[in-house]
Write a structure and sequence with these properties.
single chain; 285 residues; alpha/beta; Rossmann fold; nine-stranded mixed sheet; 8 helices; globular; binds S-adenosylmethionine
């Protein structure tokens, strides 16, 4: 994530029409971890913190099985809980609405996930402790928020569950790197693998997943990998610039003439932005 995207103009006919930041190498890794859980018979819920227009949520939703719950938590068009988060929202997600997320999601799935439209700080009151087999943390990229999201993920993850953190090493969001590697140093978060954009880890034993992943990677000539000792354990580095994405979820609008979404009305400024604008306009005392 590094810039504002313009609003999507039509119902998505293909997965590639959904705007977001979820690249082929990470699609392959999500698919690998989730298919492995299926093979292992590991059951549990799915959770995403930070959904935007649904790109990664739509993908994750394809791995949901009967009697499991998929929860997504996002502010969408609600006010952010503090000024730095509000500025982040204005800068990067100014035109985002829950309606746009839901329309995209329903183009690929019959039912919506459980949507928690709130700051991620509420998530431990909405999801059961120890219930989630896979958690994608991709909400605010500010240190204080990511730190809280990591604590929540640690509470909510099931034994042998996997946690993926977005943008853990990007130049524009040093707070994510600080929070994620801080958790490795202080909370027992165990790294398994990294791509250019995501960190995959667990609070359980990382070794079985790590060794199976190392057996699978040589079968993927489209991805380079290497292993480096980090914090006393082997970390798999994956470079997926040429990665070929796995089969994408299918849209119910595929092959149909694109249905334009109604012309957007000018978005209402977020409350905090409105507050700042008003402050700037009012005479100073
Ligand atoms: C990088 S985007 C998510 C991208 C999405 N996972 C994808 O793959 O396309 C980050 C999302 O986090 C949400 N967000 C930012 N701060 C948040 C907060 N404090 N609580 C909940 N959601 C937040 C934003 O509304 C935005 O939709």
């Amino acid at each position: 994530m590094s810039q504002t995207t313009s609003a999507q103009s039509a119902a998505p006919a293909r997965f590639s029409d959904v705007k977001g930041w979820f690249w082929p190498a990470d699609q392959l890794l999500f698919d690998w971890f989730l298919a492995r859980q299926e093979r292992q018979g590991l059951r549990g819920d799915l959770l995403e913190l930070g959904a935007y227009l649904g790109k990664s949520a739509i993908f994750l939703g394809s791995y949901l099985r009967e009697d499991e719950t998929f929860t997504v938590c996002d502010l969408f068009d609600s006010p952010a809980p503090d000024d730095p988060n509000s500025e982040e929202m204005d800068r990067s997600y100014a035109t985002l609405t829950r309606r746009a997320f839901e329309a995209n999601y329903l183009a690929f799935h019959d039912e919506l996930p459980v949507v928690v439209q709130a700051p991620t700080s509420v998530i431990t009151s909405r999801v059961d402790s120890g219930s989630c087999r896979f958690i994608h943390v991709d909400a605010s990229h500010l240190y204080e928020h990511v730190h809280g999201d990591i604590a929540a993920a640690r509470d909510l993850v099931a034994p042998d569950g996997i946690v993926a953190f977005d943008d853990f090493r990007a130049e524009h969001c040093p707070g994510v790197a600080a929070a994620v590697w801080g958790a490795v140093a202080t909370t027992g978060l165990r790294p398994i693998a990294i791509t250019a954009t995501k960190f995959y880890g667990t609070w359980s034993d990382p070794e079985p997943a790590r060794s199976e992943l190392l057996s699978w990677l040589p079968t993927r000539p489209d991805m380079w990998h290497g292993v480096e000792e980090v914090a006393g354990a082997p970390l798999i580095r994956i470079s997926g610039k040429k990665a070929v994405a796995p089969a994408a979820p299918r849209s119910r609008h595929e092959g149909l003439t694109p249905v334009p979404t109604p012309a957007p009305t000018a978005p209402k400024p977020r409350p905090a932005l409105a507050r700042r604008l008003a402050k700037g306009l009012l005479p100073r005392r």
